[in-house]
Structure formats: C-alpha cells, structure tokens
Specification:
This protein has three helices and eight strands. With about 160 residues, the protein is of the alpha+beta class. This is YbjN domain-containing protein.
C-alpha cells in the first residue's frame, strides 16, 4: 500500500482496503451512486477530515439558488447525534458536506461507521438539493389551460 506521511493516517486508510493516495495526506473514494469523498489528514492537528461532494449546482440561479443557500444555512445550524457537520458551497459551485474528528477517536470500526454516517448525510443533502431544484420530478406543477375566449357582453 502506498505510504502516507502520518502512520496513524496510514492505518486508517488501510482499514478501508486498497486506497490510492491523492497526496501524502489524502485519498479519494467514489461510490456506486457517484458520490465522491475526500478523506484527508489535517495539516496542523491530528484530525481526519471528510468531504462528501454532493452535487454540482452551477446551473442554479435566481429563486431556486436563494432557496438552496437558505436551506444549507439552516442545515449548518443543526447537529445530529452529537456529530456536527457543515454544508458548504465551494468555488466550483459544488455542495460539500464536511466534518472532522480527532484521529485517536477513529480506532477500530469507528472510522468506517463515521464514514457511512457522513455518506448518509451527503446522500440526504443531495436528495434535498434535487428536490429543491425539481430534478427528480417529485414536486411538479401544471398550469391550468387558458380559456378559449374571454366572456363577452352579458353572458
């Protein structure tokens, strides 16, 4: 297995099987549903950071974009099961779900369980974005057909 700078991060990566480093302190994962994840060791602290790249929203403009940003800001105020995460929009207009934990808290199967939890949050955020953007056709609307002619006189 390729080497990472930090031996603890090396063990963490090895717990997932055969991963290919993208740098001396990070690796990427891609899942069957095209959910992409970057796992990296923090530069200055013994923390592990997970970024789940949920959705490209570069085509969102106007009211749908404002609704999306407002919703993401509301999500940032919440924390589930004592595991806070943040949702952001990067410079490429990709929505990312981010969290970090101390490496010493991720021994054994804890890292795998946390990664699965983060993937679940990423999938939920992606589904929310698709719903807000009417991408999955769950929310639909129809315009009523126009009347053939406006009423005339005393009809």
């Amino acid at each position: 297995m390729p080497q990472f700078e930090d031996p603890d991060f090396q063990r963490l990566a090895a717990s997932l099987g055969d991963v290919t480093p993208t740098s001396s302190r990070s690796f990427d994962l891609v899942f069957d549903d095209n959910l992409c994840v970057t796992v990296s060791g923090h530069l200055k602290r013994p923390d592990v950071c997970v970024d789940v790249w949920c959705h490209d929203v570069s085509a969102y403009v106007g009211a749908p974009r404002r609704a999306l940003v407002d919703t993401l800001l509301l999500l940032n105020r919440s924390a589930q099961a004592g595991q806070p995460f943040r949702v952001g929009l990067d410079s490429r207009d990709f929505i990312v779900v981010h969290a970090s934990q101390a490496m010493d808290r991720l021994e054994g199967g804890t890292f795998g369980a946390w990664l699965i939890w983060m993937l679940d949050q990423g999938r939920r955020v992606r589904e929310l974005v698709r719903t807000i953007g009417f991408e999955n056709s769950r929310l639909a609307y129809e315009l009523a057909p126009a009347l053939a002619a406006a009423p005339q006189g005393d009809q």
